[in-house]
Design a protein that fits this description.
308 residues; alpha/beta; Spore Coat Polysaccharide Biosynthesis Protein SpsA, Chain A; five-stranded mixed sheet; three-stranded mixed sheet; 8 helices; 12 strands
Length: 308
């Protein structure tokens, strides 16, 4: 399948909403992500995909000050990233952008999806086979274990993608996912944890069958791969390229320790500019967030040692 290339003069495909995938420990990044979306899109519906129960204070704050709601899916702990798949099975024909909480929009990214594009638009990514197997799924081992799997045509990070509900049936995932809470994988050794491996698998399987339903374009910017044109000044002036900056695999307890923290700080300050006593609240929450992340990591290490 060839990459979809749209003309600059083609009209923009309308988007019904933006979904932000968040989890209970992502509150700080969720606020920052929401602020970045509203910086460029003040009016478009924004819905948080709650992969696990969110704090009531966060839900109320997003609703009251940022015109952002929580998507009405089944509540519970979906497991890593699986809640994003629910957008595929939403109201038929709904057009949306899905982004992870550890992202920010730095330009008019919705302009990337053109009317001439297919129902899905993914980030264009090129990787060697060993990296594709590590980050998505191991087609050789799947084939050897009873699930015939050709090499993928394309792969893409599922932290940012455009989609249309009703184009893919839930049954397409039934041989890969157990639809419990949390979701479980039938072949956990050969798939990247969460939705990323299985979504790539299903979309590639459908493409191998001749279904021409997704295009590819540069959507994601990963900080270690270059941010020369995504400066804080360019974002402020709204002259940065229309991409989603994604800190995939780069999260730290302290935002100041992350790559290009100035973008995160800028949108965090913007977020708290609408919140009563925001400047004070921002600093208090920054400290409590670092402490809670440290405590969580400590608990995880203790559980791992006890298992061993």
């Amino acid at each position: 399948m060839e990459t979809s290339v749209a003309s600059d003069s083609a009209p923009i495909r309308p988007v019904d909403c933006i979904y932000i995938a968040a989890f209970s420990r992502d509150a700080r990044l969720t606020r920052i992500c929401v602020a970045s979306v509203r910086f460029f899109y003040p009016d478009i519906p924004v819905r948080v995909l709650a992969g696990s129960p969110l704090m009531p204070d966060l839900i109320r704050e997003l609703r009251d000050y940022w015109n952002t709601s929580v998507a009405r899916w089944q509540e519970g702990d979906y497991g890593s990233g699986f809640v994003k798949l629910e957008t595929l099975f939403g109201p038929p024909g709904e057009r949306f952008l899905v982004i992870d909480a550890d992202t920010v929009i730095v330009g008019p990214v919705l302009d990337l999806w053109r009317e001439t594009d297919p129902p899905f638009l993914m980030d264009e990514e090129t990787l060697p086979d060993n990296e594709m197997k590590r980050l998505y799924y191991d087609w050789d081992n799947l084939s050897a274990n009873g699930l015939p799997t050709p090499r993928p045509l394309h792969v893409y990070n599922t932290g940012q993608w455009f989609g249309t509900a009703g184009e893919v049936e839930r049954s397409e995932f039934d041989d890969l996912i157990v639809w419990t809470m949390p979701r479980r994988l039938h072949f956990p050794k050969f798939f990247m944890t969460g939705d990323q491996g299985t979504q790539n698998y299903v979309f590639n399987r459908m493409a191998h069958r001749g279904r021409q339903f997704y295009g590819r374009r540069t959507i994601m910017r990963w900080p270690p791969h270059g941010m020369s044109d995504v400066t804080l000044e360019a974002v402020r002036n709204r002259t940065a390229p229309p991409v989603v900056v994604h800190w995939a695999g780069l999260k730290k307890r302290r935002i100041g320790d992350m790559v290009n923290p100035e973008l995160l700080v800028f949108f965090e300050k913007y977020y708290y500019s609408r919140i009563p006593f925001g400047s004070v609240l921002r600093h208090v929450r920054a400290v409590t967030d670092v402490c809670s992340q440290w405590l969580h990591n400590k608990k995880v290490r203790i559980r791992q040692r006890l298992r061993r």
